[in-house]
């Protein structure tokens, strides 16, 4: 195992790179700002690679641990570590940061330095969330990550960007306040410790566990987002710039789901069992009902936004089956959704940059003028539909397989939603891409350039790799998932 502080580097390299980009000043130095941002993003990604290559797959505990005293008076520490559950998300986050910096290379022309710096800083803060083992440190990163995304939507978004950014911030802040109360209770119960790993071992009665679980549920459900606290997401996606939509779907939605595995299940295991039917019900509503909502959307971004809610429903469904197949399938779905949803939003951004419309009715026959783009867009649409041999199939298949062991009708409802997913994805693709050239805007389209092809190519390779050969992704999480399930099962017995 590496002796270098890899987790600190994964957090602070993008944050410091963002500070250097900000220092380039106004838009006269935009080329320098873009180059510094890309270099910072690439370096931040490279330092995460040893996390995977040096990872001990037989060890379900925390690895690459860093521990230093931060605020000794309150026993608050700078405590970092990753296990098989969190490691892949650090790498995914760093990879997506390269994508979003490249995605805005030619499109963003105003406040270029500030735009790129916001993404770099947010990348570092999100890595802090995935690696924090101290409750206060986690909460600081958890809250601070809202600020760059709020600015990205509010400054570089669409006509209703201020409303969307404000709604996003209020929803997530409300959940976070309940989360803070839960952290204070755990601090008192543990005798003055903010160690998340120590909180996992606390002997808490069922009554307090239920209150803790509900506080966690509200905080993380807003982030996922789960039905019925999902309404901020379509507005945020529609108004966000392309890069904002990519990082929101690919990474930000994963923070809430990750919270369930780091807090809800291990800290309140008995309450998790008692209230699992509630979470399963909410997840099925998201999977089935939101799929039908996506089917009637006229705006491509809104359609993919609702699609994200439905796909994340599979994630929360998998978590509360209490089986290795379900949780690992949910984790695979989270990583896959990062690739596929990021690619879908980038494809929509490619068309929007040329036509300045996201309405499905304004397109038609795009394949005639953009054949390379149409081929790649087809791959991601199929992955979004859950086509076998793409990453979109693997996670959903594992969750459905786990659901069969839990309850046939739960599995049936989840599986039927894949038909709806294929319907809205392929229906959108048909109307936008196939047919005769619909209007002069489509007739004047130019195919993707080298930059756009490189971005979509990277995402295509990741989507196919995970779909054809998912073992490298599943083997790293297996020991950690088994340890978590053993902890939850033992707690239930006691």
Summarize the structure.
With 494 residues, the chain is mainly alpha-helical. It has helices spanning 6-22, 30-46, 49-53, 87-103, 112-131, 135-144, 146-156, 161-189, 196-199, 206-223, 232-239, 242-267, 269-274, 276-295, 300-319, 324-355, 371-385, 391-406, 408-433, 440-443, 450-468, 471-493, and strands at 63-71, 76-82. Strand 1 and strand 2 form a beta hairpin.
What is the 3D shape? globular
Physical arrangement of strands within the biggest beta sheet? 1-2
The first-to-last residue Cα distance is 35 Å
* Number of DSSP strand runs: 2
| Biggest sheet details | 2 strands, antiparallel
* Alpha carbon gyration radius: 22 Å
Q: Please report the number of helical segments.
A: 22
Give the overall average pLDDT.
88
- Order of H and E elements: HHHEEHHHHHHHHHHHHHHHHHHH
Strand content: under 5%
Low-confidence stretches: none
Backbone structural class: mainly alpha
**Roughly how much helix do the residues carry, as a percent range?**
over 70%
